[in-house]
Amino acid sequence: MPGPKADINLDEPEVNLDPDDTPSNPSEASAEPGDKASDLASTNTAVAQNSSSLIGLADQQPSIVADHPDFWVVNKPIGWTVQRDEQAPSVLQWLEETYGAKVYPVHRLDKPTSGLLLVAKTTVGNRALSQAFAQRGIEKTYLALSDKKPLKKQGWVKGDMAVSRRSQWKLLRTVANPAVTQFTSSLLANGLRGFILHPKTGKTHQLRVALKSLGCPILGDSLYAGTAADRVYLHAWKIAFQFQDIQHAYQVDPTDGLFGAWPLEQNG
After folding, report:
1. What single-letter DSSP state applies at residue 164?
2. What is the pLDDT of residues 31-53, one digit of tens each?
3. pTM here?
């Protein structure tokens, strides 16, 4: 007997919606001003105008958002890796050299992703926070931009993931050990759509594959057929967790490039 199917996958155009999913209305293709070709052209112009001002962003330094005795919360710039990399600056190496301390990576962000990164300072912090991640006790929220209209405006993307070609990952039809992402989206200016993403699991390239599967790859994500831009528009926006019976919550808004089109204060 075949197993359960994923809610959405890369190889099939159909989308199986959960009961709380809200599908896009086909009639909206001409009704939404943000889907007009003129708006998309304006977006591409804005990308070109912003590219020159964002050159050298990878040279920016990380910043400390929270300095706890057992962990740091770091704001990672785009172009930085977490682990040591000969081709790019490393956040862990920067922490070691700046603070002269041993560091423990609790989770990771892709090199082109900006935003909040949790790094343990002590074995106690590493053990507790790693366990919290493993038990899905850490809540993460990401922001993404796309210039494409999604197959559905909000809901879930669920499915197993496997290595594909050219360093890509793909979403499978099965759900034996699935990647799970909840999302909402809203129409922004200049033909852009903003996505608020809540990953419930921590698979490699999970969010990038999820938006690709929705027909709206992340702006600037050339690996997954996103429209060319000055950066990959994916940002780790919020992180919340409990540590030693105290609730911690942190937020860093993105400030560069086309993220400026998003009135984030309306989303809390």
Report:
1. -
2. 333 333 334 444 444 443 343 33
3. 0.80
